[in-house]
Amino acid sequence: MRYFRTTILLIITTLSLSTLVNAGALPDGPHVAVTGSAQIEVQPDQVTVQFQATSLEKTAGLAKQNVDQQVAALLVNLEKGGFDTKVLERGQINTRAQYQYIKDQRTLQGIAATRDLTYLLTDIDKVNLFLELVMAANIQSIGQMHYGLQSPQKWQLKVRQLAIQDSKEKAENLASAYQAKLGKIYAINYQHNYAQPLMMRAVSEQRAESTYQVNKIKINDQVQVVFILE
User: Fold this and answer.
1) Do 62 and 134 reside in the same domain of the chain?
2) 164 dihedral zone (left: phi>0; alpha: psi -120 to 50; beta)
3) In the chain, what are the helix, strand and coil shares in percent, each to the nearest 5?
4) Which residues lie across from 218 on neighbouring strands?
5) Which residue in 61, 80, 120, 217 is deepest, having the highest Cβ count within 10 Å?
6) CA 209 – CA 108 distance, rounded (Å)
7) What is the model's pTM?
8) Model confidence over 83-104: pLDDT tens digits?
């Protein structure tokens, strides 16, 4: 079972009451309104590599044939390297005429064929090996790599619980400082879009240094709460 080290940063912020006021969520009696916030940093455990097989030939048939050969060579390389070839996503082959423009003259260079390819790696320690196998198949067009998390919901739940705990601690501290007693919760305002946290990185950066430390992904959350004061 794989464990990931996390750095937890609790952030206590002052609350803008505009949302709660507009929603009519403030009581008439004594109360305290707080925002609980939290942020965690998690090491990514997967990376999506997007790349493209390309060829420029005199005819569309030759260009398509070269692209097919590149993909076939890649599948052989991946299998030899211990990668699951079923994970490789392959788009349709597209062709277009490619011209060279010199002043007002246009010269046909040939027919370009391209095929979009995507591979999801769940072992980020093998990124450089994967890129070497791609290059060995004569595929040179590699886009950015998208680092992410295999189970983002687990970390999003964790940071939400930390934000809730932060709101409780802040409310208790404020009530105690003013010699008041914290009562029941009057209102909770929570809005968060759980998008998949991602981090992009250029392939040139990845290949420049094999010992490069991949940056951690930051996940944050917050909750606004109104407590009654007794």
Assistant:
1) yes
2) alpha
3) 30, 40, 25
4) 41
5) 217
6) 39
7) 0.74
8) 999 999 999 999 999 999 988 8
Interstrand relation of 199-201 and 105-121 (parallel, antiparallel or unpaired): unpaired
Note whether 213 and 9 are within 8 A (CB): no
Two tokens at 192?
């968060």
38 with 57, same domain?
no
| 24 or 188, which is more confident | 188
Amino acid at 53: A
Verify that 57 and 19 share a domain, yes or no. Answer: no
- CATH number of residue 200's parent domain: 3.30.110
Domain assignment present for 165: no
Tell me the pairing of strands 46-57 and 217-229.
Answer: unpaired
Q: Which residues of 133-172 are buried (b: 16+ CB within 10 A; e: fewer)?
A: bbeebebeebbebbbbbeebeebbebbbebbbebbeebbe
pLDDT of residue 22: 52
Packing angle between helix 60-80 and helix 127-136, nearest 10 degrees?
A: 140
Closest CA to 223 of 153, 171, 160: 160
Name 96's Cβ contacts closer than 8 Å, sequence gap at least 6: 111, 112
Q: Are residues 52 and 141 in the same domain?
A: yes
Reported as a single tens digit per residue, the pLDDT across 144-185 is: 889 999 999 999 999 999 999 999 999 999 999 999 999 999
Contact (Cβ atoms closer than 8 angstroms) between residue 193 and residue 143: no
Rounded to whole angstroms, the Cα distance separating 121 from 78 reads: 12
Residues 30 and 85 in one domain: no
Structure tokens at 109: 């260079």
Same domain, 39 and 55: no
Which structure tokens are listed for 25?
A: 């969520």
